[in-house]
Write a sequence for this structure.
């Protein structure tokens, strides 16, 4: 149970139940579709950019608690950030969920995203946590091919 | 209901202990808890009798089969062909030559599609499948239909997850050349009225393939009684190794069909001008086959026969009954599929908890269940669920294991509130 509580932290459960920025941006400058064929998680990320700054970002789709809450927290984390800052955040997030505790120094910068640190104990679920980020990355790069975690 | 289950489990308690002893993996722990293996529809565990057969073959009998004139090769050939005869009797095929060793049910279907399907299907023809097929009985037909300009039709299912026979009958037409239908659904557990479906399809002039991957582990299959033209079996779902399966094909069809793959073993004579093919089943077994796997499958069949269908049916019925009853007590749990005729497979979803989160949570208690679309995405779409959690039982599972699953689901409920 302890490890489970570590994975399903209150922040994650809260964002799963009440996802932030769960909406379509009709006049989005960029959007991308991502899916995780293994689990059937599906997500679309919408971005409005102004001078290389993420003015608005949202998502919709369906998936497990990890993928949904990760998408929700991601939108709150990158809102108002520059594209370069968002990419840096993704790199740190990715390192945290795949590598391990040595990334502790970055935890502070990750803020609420640090709630996903427990995911690294569950290798099968890392893709769930990363899906939204990969999809955001594709949207920012204006890639047209859907993102797949496979 | 509970009483019946308790009584039958009491009567066979020592039998269950002894069959569990046959499966070494059931002794192990996972995450510090005893393994509760409830993913038998994905693959079953293997009894010592099968494991020993593989080990013995590689330790003391290994040789390539056919054409060898030395002792070990002759012995391996005899054992391989004996496994075929065992498989023939297991399916009640009329002749051993009607049983082809393949990699698994997927390859069996691809063999029929690539050989029979490709040689008979023409533009404007139809192939009829059902809405509850595994991807392996959808995609190969799709590829073929696209290639030749044929139409793939789908007989619908209803909310219970069963296949209404009248709708199936309406989907048949004089253009239907092939019907491919699953015997037991892997995601819903539904047992289809295959004998009736086959007879309707035959009346309309179609050739019928029955996908028996999920049926063969649970019930006695009689291909002659079913009247089907092809029947596919996956070894690893019935206590045999992975990489071995069976295709039953009616003799005259196999005789007339072109080869599936070219190579050694499947020829009578080869010259650069012309090659003549061996008769079935060799015609469809190009290359060195999975000899150890075939022997292992033979051993698995022998094991099933020793345990007996009566024991298997009684155990699986009592596990299914107990699971349906106990799972229904978990708040917010909803079953997907409620066929009256069903194998010991239970698919479900929980309010506010995605199947993958369920899978991760019960894994912490040592419980292995499958979560996802189960290679039946059209079934998920039909029930408007992204994924389900699926518990599938084998005769070696216990009612206590069902209770461990139920407690773990209650924990999931607590975590998610």
């Amino acid at each position: 149970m302890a490890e489970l509580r570590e994975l399903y932290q209150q922040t994650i459960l809260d964002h799963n139940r009440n996802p932030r920025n769960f909406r379509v941006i009709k006049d989005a400058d960029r959007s991308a579709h991502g899916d995780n064929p293994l689990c059937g998680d599906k997500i679309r990320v919408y971005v409005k950019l102004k001078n290389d700054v993420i003015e608005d970002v949202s998502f919709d789709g369906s998936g497990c608690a990890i993928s949904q809450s990760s998408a929700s927290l991601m939108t709150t984390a990158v809102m108002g950030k520059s594209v370069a800052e968002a990419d840096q955040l993704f790199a740190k997030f990715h390192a945290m969920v795949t590598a391990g505790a040595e990334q502790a120094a970055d935890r502070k910068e990750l803020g609420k995203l640090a709630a996903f640190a427990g995911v690294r104990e569950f290798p099968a679920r890392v893709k769930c946590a990363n899906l939204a980020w990969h999809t955001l990355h594709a949207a920012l790069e204006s890639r047209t091919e859907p993102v797949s975690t496979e | 209901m509970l009483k019946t289950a308790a009584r039958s489990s009491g009567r066979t308690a020592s039998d269950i202990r002894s069959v569990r002893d046959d499966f070494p993996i059931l002794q192990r722990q996972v995450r510090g808890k005893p393994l509760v293996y409830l993913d038998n529809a994905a693959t079953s565990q293997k009894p010592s009798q099968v494991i020993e057969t593989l080990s013995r073959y590689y330790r003391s009998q290994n040789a390539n089969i056919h054409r060898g004139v030395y002792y070990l090769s002759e012995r391996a050939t005899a054992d391989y062909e004996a496994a075929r005869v065992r498989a023939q009797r297991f399916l009640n095929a009329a002749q051993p030559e009607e049983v082809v060793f393949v990699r698994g049910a997927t390859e069996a279907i691809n063999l029929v599609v690539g050989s029979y399907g490709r040689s008979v299907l023409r533009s404007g023809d139809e192939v009829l499948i059902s809405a509850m097929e595994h991807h392996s009985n959808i995609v190969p037909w799709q590829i073929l239909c696209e290639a030749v300009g044929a139409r793939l039709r789908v007989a619908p299912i209803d909310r219970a997850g069963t296949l209404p026979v009248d709708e199936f009958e309406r989907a048949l037409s004089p253009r239907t050349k092939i019907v491919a239908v699953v015997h037991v659904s892997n995601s819903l557990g539904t047992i289809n009225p295959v004998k009736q479906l086959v007879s309707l399809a035959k009346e309309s002039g179609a050739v019928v393939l029955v996908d028996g991957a999920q049926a063969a582990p649970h019930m006695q299959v009689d291909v002659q009684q079913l009247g089907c033209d092809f029947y596919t079996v996956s070894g690893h779902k019935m206590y045999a190794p992975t990489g071995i399966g069976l295709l039953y094909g009616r003799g005259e069809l196999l005789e007339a069909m072109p080869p599936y793959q070219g190579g050694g073993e499947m020829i009578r004579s080869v010259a650069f001008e012309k090659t003549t093919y061996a008769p079935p089943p060799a015609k469809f077994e190009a290359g060195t086959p999975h000899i150890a796997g075939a022997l292992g499958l033979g051993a698995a069949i022998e094991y099933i026969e020793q345990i007996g269908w009566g024991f298997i049916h009684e155990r699986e019925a009592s596990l299914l009954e107990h699971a349906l009853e106990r799972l229904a007590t978990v708040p917010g749990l909803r079953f997907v599929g409620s066929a009256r005729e069903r194998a010991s497979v239970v698919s479900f979803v929980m309010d506010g908890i995605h199947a993958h989160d369920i899978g991760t949570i019960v894994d912490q208690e040592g419980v292995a269940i499958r979560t996802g679309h189960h290679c039946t995405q059209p079934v998920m779409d039909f029930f408007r669920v992204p994924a389900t959690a699926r518990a599938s039982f084998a005769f070696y599972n216990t009612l206590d294991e069902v209770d461990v699953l139920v407690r773990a689901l209650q924990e999931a409920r607590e975590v998610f509130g």
Chain B has two domains: 2-43+308-416, 63-305. Residues 63-305 of chain B form a domain with the Aspartate Aminotransferase; domain 2 fold (CATH 3.40.640.10). Chain B touches chain A through 20 residues (CB under 8 Å).
